[in-house]
Amino acid sequence: MARDTTDFRPIEGVDELVEHLAEGNKPRDKWRIGTEHEKFPFYVDGNAPVPYGGERGIRAILEGMQEKLGWDPIMDAGRIIGLVEPTGQGAISLEPGGQFELSGAPLETIHQTCREGNAHLAQVREIAEPMGIRFLGLGGSPKWSLAETPKMPKSRYEIMTRYMPKVGSKGLDMMYRTCTIQVNLDFENEADMRRKMQVSLKLQPLSTALFANSPFTEGRPNGFQSWRGDIWRDTDNQRSGLLEFCFSPEFGFADYVEWALDVPMYFVIRDGHYHDMTHVTFRQFMGGVARNEIPDGLPTMGDWANHLSTLFPDVRLKRFLEMRGADGGPWRRICALPALWVGLLYDEAALDAAEALTSNWTYEEVLAMRNAVPEQGISAPFRNTTLREIARDVLVISRMGLKNRAKKNRDGYDETTFLNTLDEVVARGTTSAEELLSAYHTRWGGSIEPVFMEYAY
């Protein structure tokens, strides 16, 4: 999330919180595709991490991008921490360890998404390369320890950094040493949201497997295909993971609100200052526990929007749905991830087929799949088959959905071409992580340094 929300409307009751989510309902002709992707900046000389400050640091890249794009700066305590397009059509933000993120504009087609990603990467290269900086497309930081990883000066990250070790063993790794590609998609009404949430929750482990791309940590293999997927198994289980209540046939906006109310908060913002609120849930906040702790200690709708942005389930519900399972990766993956989910969820026949495929999958089965994927990737078992075989069926459905959408580029190609990279994973039977490990053990001679050349933007 590029910029935390300031909306000073007071909250009168829980119904308003439910309505806040329901305001995301959109007619089909207004559905859009919002793609986000993160990458690790590094100095070409020595493959070292890039700090925030200095003439060749993250701040300098942001200032160069601001000058080039004319976007508005996002400031935190007087420091530039991101950029936002003046009309809200996209933003650039920083993750805790300096991971550079583009939060793309809401677009109509994957063709536009791919052009947007291409343009962004070209722009950031133009600014960064004279500084000797490039960007790495992996799901996990392959070389640097936590101690070596820079810390970005964002107030919310300072609060999270103090809090994470209290609630899980891997939260700091999640913050500082992972990257993702995700896509944000719309829904028509509560029933449509329910169908999409349930299908995408059940298939999120498959997405993690198909995009598994984080097999190295601190210069050596870490035992995982998706180290990032393993990290999410013990980050903060009160606010992340696979949400069992979403599997209910009656699941709706109110159920998500009731869950979110009982998750501890991170912060509230008053007069530009971030106040640590990790000791209370949002329900307790609404009950008035902070009335005397902070200025204007009554909850606002801005507080609620910010709280929703600090919840990390595999599929996150805000006024849209966020698909959160995939590792970061090279350029082709930035196009493939939204193509997969748009094909499955934005065409009615494809959604029907995906729903039929997954209808009798239980929470326990999906959880077991989720737990198997970090080590086993698409070879993970499911019932009497493997995820590789499930992926074949899912890609057929997604391809049908994209074909039915019939969104063609100027050369007459539809969006199905963007699934080709995933077809290759299934045809090979090996993930990107397995290809990286093979290179490490053979032509790289037991060194991870070549990954900085082969997976650089």
Automatic annotation (TrEMBL):
- Biological or metabolic pathway of the protein: Sulfur metabolism; glutathione biosynthesis; glutathione from L-cysteine and L-glutamate: step 1/2
An example GO BP is: glutathione biosynthetic process
Q: What reaction does this enzyme carry out catalytically?
A: L-cysteine + L-glutamate + ATP = gamma-L-glutamyl-L-cysteine + ADP + phosphate + H(+)
GO terms for MF: ATP binding; glutamate-cysteine ligase activity
> Which cysteines form disulfides?
114-335
Q: Which SUPFAM superfamilies match?
A: Glutamine synthetase/guanido kinase (SSF55931)
The keyword Nucleotide-binding appears for this protein:
yes
Keyword Disulfide bond: yes or no? yes
The source's superkingdom equals Bacteria
Purpose: Catalyzes the synthesis of gamma-glutamylcysteine (gamma-GC).
Q: How does it assemble?
A: Homodimer or monomer when oxidized or reduced, respectively.
- Identify its protein family: Belongs to the glutamate--cysteine ligase type 2 family. EgtA subfamily.
The protein depicted here goes by the name: Glutamate--cysteine ligase
